[in-house]
Design brief:
Pfam families: OB_ChsH2_C. This is ChsH2 C-terminal OB-fold domain-containing protein. Residues 53-117 form the ChsH2 C-terminal OB-fold domain. InterPro entries: ChsH2_C (IPR002878), NA-bd_OB-fold (IPR012340), Thioester_dehydratase-like (IPR052513). With 143 residues, the protein is mainly beta. The chain has one domain. The chain is 6% helix and 38% strand. The protein contains 1 helix and 8 strands, in the order αββββββββ.
């Protein structure tokens, strides 16, 4: 894998361990009744100390995207075009990722997306990317 890889911390480790098992786990606040992403120590807005890790479906909607025809940084010099995206999980939080296995002209805001787990054997990390869902109109369940 020719990219910079993240450095998991104790706070983010449940997310990375989930990805290693090809599952997506994010935090949920029972008191706020909502999912939270990126990992945090307390619930945003309320500062409640009740965040727990839960598995989510992984299904997402494409909110916006940009197609980088030139590398966004040296580690991605062989990865153009690079499709950078903001997506929203069915469970609520928005997040950023890259889109793979897609024909850029066929992408459209609002289309349904599914996760792609890419394992890096050298580091034992799994990265999360997205691609258009095989069947639009039906949200797949994962896990």
């Amino acid at each position: 894998m020719n990219t910079r890889l993240p450095d998991p911390t104790p706070l983010t480790m449940p997310f990375w361990e989930g990805l290693r098992g090809h599952r997506i786990r994010i935090q949920y606040s029972p008191s706020a009744d909502r999912y939270v992403f990126y990992p945090r120590a307390v619930t945003p807005g309320t500062l409640a100390n009740d965040l727990e890790w839960r598995e989510i479906s992984g299904a997402a909607t494409l909110i916006t995207y940009a197609i980088a025809q030139r590398p966004t940084a040296p580690p991605w010099q062989d990865s153009t075009p690079q499709i950078l995206a903001v997506l929203e999980w069915t469970e609520g939080p928005r997040f950023t990722s890259s889109i793979v296995d897609a024909d850029p002209p066929a992408l459209s805001v609002g289309m349904q997306m599914e996760p792609v787990f890419m394992d890096d054997a050298d580091t034992d990390l799994t990265l999360l990317y997205y691609r258009p869902a095989k069947v639009q109109g039906v949200r797949p369940r994962f896990g």
